[in-house]
Structure formats: structure tokens, C-alpha cells
Amino acid sequence: MAKQKKQPRPKAETPKGFRDYFGHEVTERQEMLNRIAEVYRRYGFDALESSGVETVEALGKFLPDVDRPNEGVFAWQEDDDKTWLALRYDLTAPLARVYAQHRNDLPTPYRRYAMGPVWRNEKPGPGRFRQFYQCDADTVGAPNVAADAEICGMLADALETVGIPRGDYIIRVNNRKVLNGIIESVAELQKQMTFPEGLSERGQREFETLRTRLIASTDNVMRTLDKFDKIGDRGVRELLGTGRKDASGAFIDGLGLPEYVADGFLAFLHAKGETNEVTLQRLREVVRYSQEGLQGVNELEEIATLLARQGYGPEQIIIDPSVVRGLGYYTGPVFEAELTFEILDEKGRPRQFGSVAGGGRYDDLVKRFTGQEVPATGISIGVDRLLAALRAKGRVGGTAQGPVLITVMDRDRMGDYQKMAAELRGAGIRAEVYLGNPKNFGNQLKYADKRDCPLAIIEGEDEKARGVVTVKDLVLGKALAEGMSHEEWKEQPAQEEIARGNLLAYVQEKLG
């Protein structure tokens, strides 16, 4: 009989693009989520926890991956009914499904916040994982821009609540309608230049061809404008026109748009002035031939006015036409929160931290389910990026304090030790009894050190008979122990004998 081949052991490794989170990392994230949730609740938003799995049909358009378009989700097909299911890639698509499904039971407007992991089947990279946390707040059913202004103010409050003070962040606001207005305006301008006497039948056809071409190029235009910070005016102009060579020398085809079109889009990018009033004036000039564009500018003006009345100044929230990312998805105002302080990159070079939140108005998402347009606006905070920013500034991080450790000197007296732990826990103090092998007392102290325990409590037979316990201050002990002899260490104040009845009060005082 042939000998069965031994099955290899599985590798103990995290899948590519994922990572594990331990102790203080999980605690820091939860504390941040709690603070943000409290801000959302103050604004009247209710919590929603939707399924982590949705049908692919409900999720709709996959998030594009540069290397594998339309492969942005983790999906599988059910055996029985052949339905395709997928892990959610954000918290907004599930909201649209929830609202469409339960709209008769929900208030209008419906204001909800949601927090949790999302999954994207994209190529991982440094700091880019396939599972990460998002923290969203959305208003569904409110068509006026007061809802957009409220989201901006709430985002500012959330950032300051978690430890990002004024001066370390800026929320930039733009409007998709303004970009659409530029396309209409440059088409109208071309019509006036080419057909000053009015459109003939042939001229009308040529004009409509130009206008259709510009509208069809919208997504590509936005991707080009999004590169403005990296390639500047010349690079944007080249990509809108005939093309350009990148840093490697490879030629990138341009969109082939006329020069005057590039002029219009660059005027849009440079419209930001020293004040919101100047910016709005410049934008009105850029989109003067478009009713939709002017409507977008008016909406931005109303947002700025509403925020100013609530006390939010230009050091917190500004109108900025250079915010282009996301305009392909949103239908109206769009917001982006950027941290303005510098950090050091992996090579020790200073750079700004960048964006930690984004959002805007999306009035078409629920329509996929209902057939009717439902106005909606919201924001999504990248929790992991925000935590990374706070760690970079030293506002969170390091190791979390462990529990008070009750050592075991006599296995037969486990009930006494558990009673001590229960007293401390009843007062809200983290405490645990050592449950490893107590034979070697030194191992218990090593365990306490590894857990970053602040105190260790000892009660042997002698202490029990005298009605006392010994408390070791492990934090102070670490600071004092270097260079001390064992006898000197025993005499210093990092170890103290107290009455058993005073244990709780003593520990509370030591822990502050």
C-alpha cells in the first residue's frame, strides 16, 4: 500500500494587501470612531449598520483599478440561484440600497452615519490595503445646499474633536456643475467665434458635434485636471491637446481638444482668489455662458454664506476650483478635507500629509433602485489615514497601558486572587489574574512587562496572614531599576506594602 503523502502545514502569514491590528491600534481606532460618532449624533444623525455583503447588482459600478478595470470587488457566485455577491467596497452604495428598500419606514430626510471595514480588490502598495475602515455620514432626501453646508461644518467639527486643530486642516469645496458649465461655455464661445452671424444648418451640426465631443471627454478631462498639482499648467495643456512625454520619456496621447478649451479649463483651475468672494467672481466669468455653471457658482456662494453665519472661517473651509477628484461621481457640491502640516516620507523628506476625507452630492445613486431621483449628500472619512496623521504628529501612538496584574503565589488560593480582580473591575479598573504557570515568579513579572502592566499585586502566605499585599509600581520600577542592586531596588518606592483593605483606594490613586 502506497504511503500517503503528508500534507504541508499552512503558512502563518497575512494575505497580500491585508494586515493585522493589535491592542493599542484597535483601541486608538475605536476611541477615534467614538469621538466622531458623538459629533455625528450631536448633529442629529442616527447609526446604521448594514450588511458587509451586497449583491453585485446592488453595488453597481465597480471601483476601477488601474491595472484591472472593473475588478474592484471581492465577488463570488451562489451555487443555488447563481446570484453574484460581493464584499462592500464603500458605505455609500449599501446606503442607497437600504434607503430604497426601507424608504416607506424611514423619515425624509434620512440622516445616518455608518462606520466599518470595506474591501477593495485592488493592487496593494505601501500604505494601500485591501481592507480599511471608513466613517461616513449622509443625508438622503434633502435637495437644498444647506445640507451640503451642514456636512462641511460637521466634518470640521469631527476633525477638531479627534485632535486636528484649526490651522492643521482645510476643507476645500467645489461643484460639478461649475465644471459642466465650463464645457458649455467654451462650446458657446467657439460658436460665437466661428459663427458670428449666427448658425447655419451646417454650422448647427458642427457646433453640436463639438459640444458632444466635449461632453464625451468629461471624465478624461477630469482625470487630466486632477494631475495639475504634479504636472502644472504646461502638462495639463499638453494632455488636453496633442499629448506629452512623461518623466520616463514615454509619450502620452492627449485628448486633442482645441487650445481655447485648454484656456477655459486652466482659467477654472486658477480661479481661486485670496477670498471666497474673489473666487466666486472669477468663476462667474469663466462659466458666464452656462446656466448650469452659474447655478453651481450660486450654490457655492450659498454654502460659503451659511458656513460663515455658523462661525466657520476661511482658515477652515474655502471655495477651491482645483478640487477635481471625485467630480465624475458627484452631481453637485464636492468636498475634500486636507491636512496641511508636514511629515517626513520614507526617505526623510518633508511633504504635506494630504487628503483624509472626501464627499459631495450624489443625486443619482438611489435612482438606480427607484427610478426616481433622490437627492443625497455625504462625507467619508478615511479612518486609517487620519490615525496615521495623528501618529505622525505624536497625538496618538506608543503602547497602551495594560491591566493591573494580580500574581499567583499559591494555586490553592485562586479564589482570593479572583476576588481582588473583581473588586478592581467593579471600580472600572482593568485587571487580570495571571493564568499561566505560576511556578516561576520571574515569568509572571516578565509577562507583566510584556503586557505593559502598570502595577503588579502580590499576596503570598505571609502577606495573607498579616492582612497586607505588596504592590509593585512597574512603570516607576523601570525608570529606577537601571544601575541599582537588587537590595537597593527593594528599598525604593516602586514597591510598597499596604493593608489588603486599602487595595482599591491605593490602586485608584496610583493610576490617577
UniProtKB/TrEMBL annotation:
Main location (coarse class): cytoplasm
The UniProt record lists the keyword Hydrolase: no
InterPro entries with a match to the protein in the record: aa-tRNA-synth_II, aa-tRNA-synth_II/BPL/LPL, Anticodon-bd, Anticodon-bd_dom_sf, His-tRNA-ligase, HisRS-like_core, HisRS/HisZ, HisRS_anticodon
Superkingdom in the source lineage: Bacteria
Ranges for domain Aminoacyl-transfer RNA synthetases class-II family profile: 1-403
EC number of this enzyme: 6.1.1.21
Gene3D superfamilies: Anticodon-binding domain, Bira Bifunctional Protein, Domain 2
Record localization: Cytoplasm
SUPFAM superfamilies: Class II aaRS ABD-related (SSF52954), Class II aaRS and biotin synthetases (SSF55681)
Oxidoreductase keyword on record: no
Key words, A-Z: Aminoacyl-tRNA synthetase, ATP-binding, Cytoplasm, Ligase, Nucleotide-binding, Protein biosynthesis
A Pfam cross-reference name: HGTP_anticodon
A single MF term (Gene Ontology): histidine-tRNA ligase activity
UniProt catalytic activity: tRNA(His) + L-histidine + ATP = L-histidyl-tRNA(His) + AMP + diphosphate + H(+)
Oligomer and partners: Homodimer.
Family, per entry: Belongs to the class-II aminoacyl-tRNA synthetase family.
Record HAMAP family: His_tRNA_synth
Official protein name in the record: Histidine--tRNA ligase
Natural source organism: Psychromarinibacter halotolerans
Record gene name: hisS
